[in-house]
Amino acid sequence: MDQEHIKLSAEGVNLSFGSKQVLKNIDIAFPEHQITALIGPSGCGKSSLLRAFNRMHDLSSNARIEGKFNLEDQDLYEKNISVTRVRSRIGMVFQKANPFPKSIYENINYGLKINGIPKDQRPGIIEKALKESYLWDEVKDELHKPAITLSGGQQQRLCIARTVALRPEVILMDEPCSALDPLSTLKIEDLILKLKKKYTIVIVTHNMQQAQRIADKTVFMYLGEIIEQGDTGDVFNNPKNELTGNYVRGRFG
Ligand SMILES: Nc1ncnc2c1ncn2[C@@H]1O[C@H](COP(=O)(O)OP(=O)(O)OP(=O)(O)O)[C@@H](O)[C@H]1O
C-alpha cells in the first residue's frame, strides 16, 4: 500500500568510533510520508543513526561503518554517488538552529546557489520555502535583515525553510525543538505535521509527549540496539518489551 511504501531503510548497521561500538546490528525502515520518532536514553545512538543516513560520519576519521543504507533503490554509500547529492535528497535540521551569519534571504539563497539553481528561479523558490515553513508572513518585509536577529523558533523555521528549498525527499531532524519554548515547539510540531504530506520525516526526540503528538511510528533504542519499533500508539500504550515500557513511563532515561 502506498502509505507503507518504504522510502528510507538500513540493514545490518554497525558503527564504531575507535574501539567503541555505538550501533549494533540495526535494521530499520521509514515509511514514505510518515513521521518516525527515534527515542531512547542519552547516548543510545539515536543521533549517530540519524547522521549515518546523510553520510555525516564520512568526516570522522575514527568512524567505521558497516551495513546497507538505501533511499528507495539508491545505495547511499555507493562508491560513485556524491555526498552533496545524498544531502540534497536527505536534508537535515539540527538541535540548535544554525543559520549562517547572513541575511534571512541569503540563508536560503546560498544552498540554491551551490546546488546550481539558476539565479532567476531563486527568488520564487525562496518565497515558496518561507511560506511552506510558515515564516513568510513574519519576515516578508525584512528579508535582508541578519538571520541572527530572529527568535530561536523563527531561526529554526528558517533552517527548515533552507532545507525544504532544496526539495529533499527525506528530512532528518535531530531534537529540533530542544532549545525552544513550549509555544515555539508547538509551532514547529504543527509545521512538521504539515510537511509530512510532501516529505518523509525522521525525528530524534527526548520529549515523549512530542513523539506521541506527531509520530506515526516510534523506534525505541537502548545501548546501540533497536529494542522495539512499531506504531506510536502500540509502543507507548502496549509495548512488547519491558525496557520500552519502563522508558516510555519515565522510569529511566
Ligand atoms: N564523532 C564521535 N566520536 C566518538 N564518539 C562519538 C562520536 N559521535 C558520537 N559518539 C558516541 O556515540 C555514542 C552515541 O551517541 P549519540 O549522540 O548517537 O547518542 P544519542 O542517543 O543521540 O544521545 P543524546 O540523546 O544524548 O543526544 C555516545 O557514547 C557518544 O559519545
UniProtKB/TrEMBL annotation:
Q: Name one GO cellular component term.
A: membrane
Please indicate which superkingdom the organism of origin belongs to. Answer: Bacteria
Stretches assigned to the ABC transporter domain: 8-248
Name a biological process GO annotation. Answer: phosphate ion transmembrane transport
Q: What Gene Ontology molecular function terms does this protein carry? A: ATP binding; ATP hydrolysis activity; phosphate transmembrane transporter activity
Determine if Protease is one of this entry's keywords.
no
SUPFAM superfamilies named in the record: P-loop containing nucleoside triphosphate hydrolases
Family matches, as CDD domains: ABC_PstB_phosphate_transporter
Q: Which UniProt keywords apply?
A: ATP-binding, Nucleotide-binding, Phosphate transport, Transport
Name residues in a coiled coil: none
**Protein name, as recorded:** Phosphate ABC transporter ATP-binding protein (PhoT family)
